[in-house]
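We emphasize that the prediction below concerns an isolated chain of 242 residues; any contacts that depend on oligomerization or on bound cofactors are therefore not represented. The input was used exactly as deposited, without trimming of termini.
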Amino acid sequence: MKHTSIVDVVDRGEQNPATRVTTVEWREPLANRKTLPLKRALDLVLTCLILVGLSPFLVLIVLAIKIGSSGPVLHTQIRLGKKGKSFTLYKFRSMYVDRDDAEHRSYVKKLIKAGNPYKVSKNGKPLFKISDDVRVTKVGRLLREYSVDEFPQLFNVLRGEMSLVGPRPPLPYEYGDYSEWHRKRLDGIPGITGLWQVSGKNTIPFEEMVELDIHYLKNWSLWLDIKIILRTIPAMLNGRDC
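Result of the prediction step, given as a token string:
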């Protein structure tokens, strides 16, 4: 199997890479880097700029959620961050209140244990995400299409629980089905976006997602974060469900 570099995937804007990502030389894991203050500084500066710049837009989202269905504007979840430490993650509510998560739990188990896709699309590509979820509101579908529901996680970034870039934090029941090597993706602080999200996201199998996350942590640089952030913007605008 041919290999490619983690940075090459970002540079080329490769979607659905047919190869697994590896590197010839591994660096010290991100969790142990003395340069972490630089990552934190980038997070704080960009997060404050985003919140100030998008504040009118965020107010419109709040109104749309309130008008669209009854319930709170924000949805909170317990997620697992660096080294498995739990924290409360914030999202704009995209589902009806008090909906059963049994289908999601069942699918996630199959995805992690056997790599099964949720379904195969009309063009023959496997999709690794529940689609046509009846729990999702009309407003929520629009928010999810453009990943706008993730914006409240900027407050998680300010609190130091997340970074702008990093592996997505899993739910506790997802983590319970992880193999030992899967858990290495929690060696660094989780992020809102990441290499997986800009490389195909819902068409990438679980184990390839884990590989992308681990290699991001092994090969982190400030420039890599900047390139991933820049690639996230057009991905969101194009509705690629980043």
